[in-house]
């Protein structure tokens, strides 16, 4: 495992940075994730429970040279980030992609995503930054003129912060023909009922909005067009519905579905760990433990104590599993890896069978291999697929950062100027906004000295943890400790933060000016040739 040297400091600062993004906006749904809504997340733990997002702390020790947003817990969750971390450690190919919907000025909340893309690029990843102009037009009703104005600003800030266009790719959805062709193919694996269930679409939803969602699925898988590779999508948790659907579509596009099996019949996902546990317990019931039979396994399972097997399943799962085992009778219960023919051409299926080493058994729509591990089987299936014209997509990974609290409370939003500091704000205006921000301070200076401030509820402290401390964990920790210890009062704290914000904006805007010539030299248009009126509201 690779860690920073200052492990104790990292752990402390990580705890200090864990705020819940302030109080939820009035009427916000604590667990609903809406990519186009404005709800905040009042309790990030619910995302682990309700949506299966995993805690980033679990994978953090395996991440080489983690970014300070990771160390401080600002990046709090992930889906399947392990393959990306492994690729970084082993020097293998991987990619990072995220997009920006140009509906307003880029602000300091967007800087989190800019930084995450750039950090992954510097760790050796293929980096992609995209302008989601089709989404802005269809979902937000932006005109092409408005989109063009904001798109240039997002690109300039990304370049000014350190994105290397020679080692990465920038594109607009509307100009990328390969992307749109991929979206068309992905659309054949999606259906409208899914969009109703995931996004709440109904009969009033305009068709271009539906098309923009499929385009976003193509964005997420776009880095794998040339070759399959681990790919991470850094986003806020409200974008998780897109990630989940993209993972499903990546799987549906595969030529072969690879599963673990134990007999000729097919198991549901819920039944598979139960049968694995029954096989491991074969010495308790099998007449011949080297060749347990499905029938005797089913009979034993019908009476077995599930707790003793270490498997938690519903009783209905036990019943369906017992029935399948009983119906298989004298067939041996024997582990194997199964290749199911999902979308394969006949030539690809035949090539797969030929490529399997060791014992194998062929059926009409699948083939079982007895000497291949699941991981090796999955790689073999991918190789055959790519060799025969398929994509071989790997399920995309994602990381999730906490929302920055707006300077006036609630979620920071591009559409509420007072809630955020734009990366285009005059440095003096940025200074003034910080000075006017709400804080987690007490009612009086005396009470603050006695009880300490509430840094975990303070938008100004978030500015330190998310931006103003940069890579200096000790400084972030010092601000936190002085606040909660009563040594730091809000007036002086805001003055220091305001000065640092002014310095950051001055430096960033100088770099934006330097990036103008670079942007103009790149193969990305900042002026759309498209025509048309903005779609109506959904």
From TrEMBL:
Residues 1-10 have a biased composition (Acidic residues). One of its GO terms (molecular function) is tryptophan-tRNA ligase activity. A motif ('HIGH' region) lies at residues 102-110. It comes from the Archaea. Its main location: cytoplasm. GO terms for biological process: tryptophanyl-tRNA aminoacylation. It holds the Pfam family tRNA-synt_1b. It is found in: Cytoplasm. Residues 1-34, 423-454, 509-538 are annotated as: Disordered. Keywords: Aminoacyl-tRNA synthetase, ATP-binding, Cytoplasm, Ligase, Nucleotide-binding, Protein biosynthesis. It is an enzyme of class 6 (ligase). A motif ('KMSKS' region) lies at residues 411-415. GO terms for cellular component: cytoplasm. Residues 444-454 have a biased composition (Basic and acidic residues). It catalyses: tRNA(Trp) + L-tryptophan + ATP = L-tryptophyl-tRNA(Trp) + AMP + diphosphate + H(+). Its EC number is 6.1.1.2. HAMAP family: Trp_tRNA_synth_A (MF_00140_A). Catalyzes the attachment of tryptophan to tRNA(Trp). Belongs to the class-I aminoacyl-tRNA synthetase family. This is Tryptophan--tRNA ligase. The lineage of its organism: Archaea, Methanobacteriati, Methanobacteriota, Stenosarchaea group, Halobacteria.
